[in-house]
Amino acid sequence: MSEPVLFVGCPTCGKAVSKQAAACPSCGHQFKAPGAFNPFHDLVHGCLVLVVIGFVLFCILAIGKM
Ligand SMILES: [Zn+2]
User: Which of 8, 2, 28 shows the shortest CA–CA distance to 20?
Assistant: First the structure.
């Protein structure tokens, strides 16, 4: 094994996909940056969206109580 093949977990179907693949062969999920896939990007983005939604709901509830 002169060239080790690295695998990453597909965020859509969860199957192991080669890091060099541009898309998941199982479900067709397109990777934004083949070879530099960062699984934490979507996780952080999702958390930020949840925080913003929670903050907006908190503001609406706070205004309604006043
Ligand atoms: Zn997939």
Answer: 8
